[in-house]
User: Which sequence fits this backbone?
């Protein structure tokens, strides 16, 4: 190749004929290109969509290189993330510059084999808040529930998923067992009364039946009894009752009659109370996730019969705390019209921003970590006034953080991880059920808005080819599917802000497009 280039320049020098400059320089450019194409260059991923299978890399030369998923070198799932440093072989096609043989540049590992120090994460996205010192907000709801239990009533807690039903139900149960820190924090005076209840808990799962509920609660009550506080005679009675319970359990396993099971359950509860009445002044029975029960379980009739029998026999200090998603009240009424009259209904509302901020502060208290204001604002905005997303986003932002001050960049990186990895499958499945008719077109316009809420006029202007009635019908369908919710007349918002972020990522909507809209 060198000889070829030398010959061209030598010919022009020795024989001064008219030779086009392009003819002279083109081989040079061609040679330079072929030499460079085998030398990997570096760049940063500016955009990539797993769904579409392509994206772009901003090269160190300032050129935007198109990259197809097939050109990514990876042992596992082929993908790129915005901001990643990559090496690639530059190429040119009819469509422009392309990146080939792309691989991610990993940071060099220190050969000194540094010790990896793990850190305890204080956020708990999968569990209810059991530590009273970490429980935030809900002052009015908590006071109303305490008043109900103080007056020997039963409490029914309901609301949408992620609203904190289990957390407040557990706190109420702990309170009846003598935990007073929340009473002191909220300045609640019980007029000298001291709760010292024995507590039994049961979390329903798919397939749970009345026998499971009855035997589960009774078994948990016996497990809760601290035998060390009882005399030898009482201990013997407790052991005898446990043996009787095992025999009774075998007899009742095939019994699905709510009335008969209620009679058996009440007799056992009274037996337990008589055993522990000199140490405890009541019993609390928590049944969580009641919405997972099938209608045929007929929990409404069982609860009504049980509560009425206990009241007739003057066991008013035995209270139920029932928890489940929005809709359980209707289910109980369907099973028995008067079942809900036996409960003080506690419907949990979305939390205020200051309550969500309190969750963050209390969770990080005494950990040596904090979250700056920008990070808090972004986390709270993504939570949509629900407590569970605060813990979900906080958990991964905490893991990402390196300097003990969780920043906006930590939260944004956690958000990206959630939508592209942790919740990716859930969101993929949800979106798969929305690819009907014009729903995709409507969703694309909804996520292009730079505002949290979207009004109808924005949609009408952006979708001029669709009739107003069709747009309204599509919005109604999205509302039924719990994708969006109506704020007030003609104004909508996404129910889950993280799903909106996922759609922005899927459609490739960037901030500049949102500002333009």
Assistant:
């Amino acid at each position: 190749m060198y000889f070829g280039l030398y010959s061209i320049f030598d010919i022009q020098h020795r024989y001064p004929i008219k030779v086009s400059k392009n003819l002279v320089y083109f081989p040079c450019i061609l040679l330079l290109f072929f030499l460079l194409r085998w030398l990997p260059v570096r760049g940063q991923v500016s955009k990539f969509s797993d769904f579409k299978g392509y994206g772009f890399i901003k090269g160190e030369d300032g050129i935007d290189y198109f990259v197809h998923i097939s050109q990514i070198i990876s042992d596992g799932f082929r993908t790129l993330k915005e901001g990643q440093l990559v090496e690639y072989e530059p190429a040119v096609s009819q469509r422009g510059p392309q990146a080939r043989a792309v691989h991610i540049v990993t940071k060099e590992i220190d050969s000194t084999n540094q010790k990896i120090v793990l850190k305890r994460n204080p956020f708990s996205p999968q569990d209810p808040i059991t530590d009273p010192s970490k429980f935030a907000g809900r002052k009015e709801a908590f006071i109303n529930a305490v008043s109900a239990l103080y007056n020997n009533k039963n409490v029914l807690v309901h609301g949408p998923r992620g609203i904190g039903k289990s957390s407040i139900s557990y706190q109420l149960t702990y309170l009846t067992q003598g935990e007073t820190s929340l009473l002191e924090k909220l300045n609640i005076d019980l007029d000298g009364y001291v709760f010292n209840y024995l507590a039994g808990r049961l979390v329903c799962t798919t397939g749970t039946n009345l026998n499971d509920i009855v035997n589960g609660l009774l078994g948990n009550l016996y497990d809760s009894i601290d035998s060390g506080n009882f005399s030898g005679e009482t201990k013997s009675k407790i052991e005898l009752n446990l043996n009787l319970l095992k025999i009774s359990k075998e007899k009742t396993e095939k019994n699905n009659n709510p009335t008969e099971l209620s009679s058996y359950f009440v007799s056992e509860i009274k037996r337990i109370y008589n055993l522990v009445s000199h140490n405890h002044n009541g019993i609390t029975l928590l049944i969580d996730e009641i919405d997972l029960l099938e209608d045929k379980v007929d929990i409404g009739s069982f609860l009504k019969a049980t509560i009425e029998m206990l009241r007739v026999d003057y066991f008013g200090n035995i209270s139920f705390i029932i928890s489940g998603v929005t809709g359980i009240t209707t289910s109980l009424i369907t099973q028995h019209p008067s079942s809900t009259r036996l409960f003080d209904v506690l419907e949990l509302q979305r939390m205020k921003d200051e309550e969500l901020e309190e969750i963050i502060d209390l969770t990080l208290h005494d950990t040596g970590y904090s979250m700056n204001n920008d990070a808090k604002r972004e986390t709270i905005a993504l939570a949509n006034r629900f407590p569970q997303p605060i813990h979900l986003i906080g958990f991964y932002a905490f893991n990402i953080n390196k300097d003990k001050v969780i920043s906006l960049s930590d939260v944004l990186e956690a958000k990206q991880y959630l939508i592209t990895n942790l919740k990716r499958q859930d969101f993929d499945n949800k979106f798969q059920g929305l690819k009907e008719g014009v729903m995709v077109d409507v969703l694309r316009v909804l996520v292009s808005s730079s505002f949290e809420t979207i009004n109808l006029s924005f949609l009408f202007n952006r979708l001029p080819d669709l009739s107003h009635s069709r747009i309204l019908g599509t919005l109604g369908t999205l509302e039924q599917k719990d994708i969006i919710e109506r704020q007030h007349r003609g104004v909508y918002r996404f129910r889950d802000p993280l799903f909106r972020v996922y759609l922005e990522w899927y459609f490739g909507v960037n901030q500049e497009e949102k500002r333009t809209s």
In short: The two ends are 54 Å apart (CA to CA). Residues 1-19 have pLDDT under 50 and may be disordered. The first strand starts at residue 41 and ends at 49.
